[in-house]
Design a protein that fits this description.
Chain lengths: ~400, ~400
Amino acid sequence: MKKIAILGSTGSIGQSTLSICESYPDRFRPIALAAGSNLEVAFEQCRRWHPQLVSISTERLADQLRTLLKSAAISTEVVHGTAGTVRVATLPEANFVVSAIVGVAGLEATYAAVLAGKTVGLANKECIVAAGDLILAAARERGVALLPIDSEHNAIHQCLRGGAPNEVRQIWLTASGGPFRNTPLSEFEHITPAQALKHPTWVMGQRITVDSATMLNKGLEIIEACRLFNLPPSQVKVTVHPQSTIHSLVEYVDGSILAQISVTDMRLPILYALAWPERIPSDLTFDMTALKQLDFQTPDLERFPCLRLAYEAAAASQAHCIALNGADEVAVAAFLSGRLSFLGIPRTIESVLSVTASASPASIPEVLQLDQSARALAEQVIEQHHPYLITH
Amino acid sequence: MKKIAILGSTGSIGQSTLSICESYPDRFRPIALAAGSNLEVAFEQCRRWHPQLVSISTERLADQLRTLLKSAAISTEVVHGTAGTVRVATLPEANFVVSAIVGVAGLEATYAAVLAGKTVGLANKECIVAAGDLILAAARERGVALLPIDSEHNAIHQCLRGGAPNEVRQIWLTASGGPFRNTPLSEFEHITPAQALKHPTWVMGQRITVDSATMLNKGLEIIEACRLFNLPPSQVKVTVHPQSTIHSLVEYVDGSILAQISVTDMRLPILYALAWPERIPSDLTFDMTALKQLDFQTPDLERFPCLRLAYEAAAASQAHCIALNGADEVAVAAFLSGRLSFLGIPRTIESVLSVTASASPASIPEVLQLDQSARALAEQVIEQHHPYLITH
């Protein structure tokens, strides 16, 4: 029986993780949950699972949750805030931590889980983008397994079983290419938030959907892959594959390429991570007889400058990766609120990166400080360059 | 340094194996060669490699080869016939045997290599089709690794590294579908040898090209996969994939599928087998940036009755697999010489299978005897049913 702590239990990955626990009651038991701010869902999860420990965002919500639990005669301990999330991540009884809090908010707890020697299922790519050096060094030192849960890196993890690390020539991340992979470049300046929020394959949150349209999302995955699999940016390639059927590929030195194919359902990488090193039966079946056509094209770096910026950040320093991620989040918010054009997103990021100094933060507070500086700088850039950045 | 014995050194796989040895002189040295009847090539190979031992088909050719070697002051020992091939396969100094003699002719030597504890690279699918039970039992008993060299099974071998044997749900062999995958069924009766000998992807020998057109070739691969990977026929599926880019796939119980992609060059599976368990760098690079489109379709068992017959033989007994292979070779020869129609090939095989008794031969002579009976029966069927089988 694996005892699971879930950071971000009320989010989409958290709920999918609980649905996997539901399907395999003899194998996986959630014993600690870090919820967001959704009191109702947090309470329902406690009622269903009776975890030892639950954390919720604020003290006020924690009080409310305690009252609800008491009236339902559920003895779950309630904590709150970042300290609460860290307690969930380090609960001694848990041996597997799912890190699924979106953004840098999950950073401290994820790092704490690694330091505590937990096996970690990583669904939060910002953790590795912003603090990959720190987290990977700690994981290596403690012999902690980091199992990627996003579909591309999970696919790479599977394909890497086909050879030794030093037998890898390069890896290929597949990208859907987003809604604009065939849009004429001349129309990019006028792309609206409504257009950018339509993703062809996955239904996701707003930021990640826009990141998918700019391919910054794939840029973050490039950085994540470099850190997770210890590869230089030159060995992490991208191929545009609109059907998202092949989730990624590993090319070995002998010329063989292994690819992973599966349904586009996050429960599969979650199950893979939870069950690892075993594979256990599921009904998440990919219907090979329905497979008709797979298409591929080389990504156009002119159309998608965010990809180029990510390669540059990955090659530059950890501080540049933090800046790329922070500046993008600010720029996407500005785009969605009509303060910035679509092309203003890469322009803002490029401006922020151009004044970022190389650095390797030695602690999570340092990472968070660099993140804050980058965000402030991005706001400033958007404010000052308004006429240039907004053209529609 | 791996010391290699090559059964079938003058054939296409044999020559490709020597070209790999040429590229990696510090890793692979051919020390024993079993040639066919091509004296000139056999002599050239001895001149180039100075093997300890060479075998050639007949005593007369052996005498001629001895004379040539003597005049060139090369001290290679020359033997001949099946006994000679067995000596090559069991030479104590060799630790890797490439089995690449086409047809059942390679059977005895391949079995001898396994009994002698050699690691065997298998390019001869008839060995496993006709004597899979025997060879696999011997390999298991002696802990001998059998490394498949044909591209599909080699791909499966690679993809199987992604999980444990009991975690495999089923495997998918890809098939080009041959030249007639879109030909109207009404035209099948009138397919000529010239049409059947045009293969869209691979350039191969005549029998295997016709077998590819009838998909009997894929049928033999189904049987081979059942034996090599210890799977029932129901767990070995076929998908038609005209580009032959994905060489095969393994579907795991959790729903993940791993696929292998590479150039269509036999040197790659040969290198993989020779280097295993390592992978070593090669210039056999698949150009991912040139990858545009991959197509798939479900094979039509009405169009390709040979596939159905192979499934039936695999499920029936080893004797049925021997009969399928022997009857096909006779039927293909009759088709190529104009004595049999294209559809007469499956009809002949079906007739032979229908009168084959279930049996599990316990020795290679028994296998060869069953093979001879099946061939004789096929000749008889073709002779007797002439008007029905030939319609063009």
